[in-house]
């Protein structure tokens, strides 16, 4: 099923780098140059299968069971000499601040219709950006006539 | 290893079912155990067509009726499709691949990562060479964009190489493959692509 040139199969999450037992083991390996990292963009973290390359250029294929999830620090391989750990690269965000409750209702409804992924904060909403920020700002241009809100950190 | 779940979306009539029909032959030759879930609005039309095609045992083709906008059952609430995929995996333990065809939808349709590991968006030449330039989320976000009916380009005044180049450009270099599904052209390349990116077999 896997030929000699095939990718290294990573089929389960063994643990988390932040767990005590793993922390010590990985630390030791890191000194010996046996720790490799796979960087995964936040937008892809929900996927269960993907072809990836480690920071040292190792060709890998992730195929997790449906009930497991890729999180930052997930250990996918360890054999005493080599360990492979996932790093989730946080996506850029765009912060939106509505002027009033009425404006917040409009803003929330609008962004929901666009299927944007958001994280709610104290009086603000952070849009998780999957692509260039300008593309997201362009989608808000027409809303300015209907609702009063600020785009924080906008250029 | 679990069976890979691959979504196939795109506008009505672009050739989603035709792509699946053509892929089934190639997949069988490669020894990849496959099943299909179709999503039609209120019928099982596509499922019946695939069963009649005879490339898969009839029970390996399951139908989900979306009832409403097709994207709701692949993005907002994909539970019906997830349950159908779980049942297929339970019924056929050696399964390598489950293809999920979405009902024909608009350029904004996307698949939930909770439902599929990978998804293909199928557009066709006859829909117009401006479709890639319109940058719908389906075209931008799909893991693979297939441009089908390349054979029709001369009949509808489309500069096909330019359409391919523009599609690759708006997708920032992500994969774009040309096909003529009715004649099976380009389909081996689609299957090879899936084997590398998501089947690992
Ligand atoms: N000329 C041409 N017609 C095609 C091709 N692929 C599919 N078709 C035709 O396009 C129509 C719609 O195809 P279908 O697979 O049902 O599209 P779906 O709605 O996306 O599933 C059918 O009449 C097919 O025979 C192709 O590569 N070339
Ligand atoms: Mg169809």
UniProtKB/TrEMBL annotation, chain B:
Q: Which SUPFAM superfamilies match?
A: P-loop containing nucleoside triphosphate hydrolases
Q: Does GTP-binding show up as a keyword for this record?
A: yes
Keywords in alphabetical order, please.
Chaperone, Cytoplasm, GTP-binding, Nickel insertion, Nucleotide-binding
- Identify the domain of life: Bacteria
Give the record's GO CC terms: cytoplasm
CobW/HypB/UreG nucleotide-binding domain location is 6-176
What GO biological process terms are annotated to this protein in UniProt?
urea catabolic process
The cross-references to Gene3D superfamilies, in alphabetical order and at most eight, read: P-loop containing nucleotide triphosphate hydrolases (3.40.50.300)
Q: Where in the cell is it found?
A: Cytoplasm
One annotated GO molecular function is: GTPase activity
Binding of GTP: at which residues? Answer: 10-17
Report the principal subcellular site: cytoplasm
Tell me which InterPro entries the record gives. CobW/HypB/UreG_nucleotide-bd, P-loop_NTPase, UreG
Q: Which family does this protein fall into?
A: Belongs to the SIMIBI class G3E GTPase family. UreG subfamily.
Subunit description: Homodimer. UreD, UreF and UreG form a complex that acts as a GTP-hydrolysis-dependent molecular chaperone, activating the urease apoprotein by helping to assemble the nickel containing metallocenter of UreC. The UreE protein probably delivers the nickel.
Q: What does this protein do?
A: Facilitates the functional incorporation of the urease nickel metallocenter. This process requires GTP hydrolysis, probably effectuated by UreG.
Kindly give the PANTHER family that the UniProt entry links to this protein: UREASE ACCESSORY PROTEIN G
Q: What is this protein called?
A: Urease accessory protein UreG
Q: Which organism is it from?
A: Salipiger pallidus
The opening ranks of the lineage are:
Bacteria, Pseudomonadati, Pseudomonadota, Alphaproteobacteria, Rhodobacterales
